[in-house]
Amino acid sequence: MTNKVNIVLVHGAWADGSSWSKVIPALKDAGYNVVATQNNMNGLAEDAETTRRAAEALDGPTILVAHSYGGAVITEAAHLCPNVVGLVYIAGFGLDEGESLTSLGAGAEPPPGAAAVRPDKYGFLWIDKDMFPENFCQDVDKAEAKVMAITQRPISVKCFNDTITNAGWKNLPTWYQVSEGDRMIPPGGEHFMAERMKAKIISLNASHASLVSHPTEIADFILRAASEVVGLNVMQTSIN
Question: Are 138 and 207 contacting, i.e. CB atoms less than 8 angstroms apart?
Answer without folding.
Answer: yes
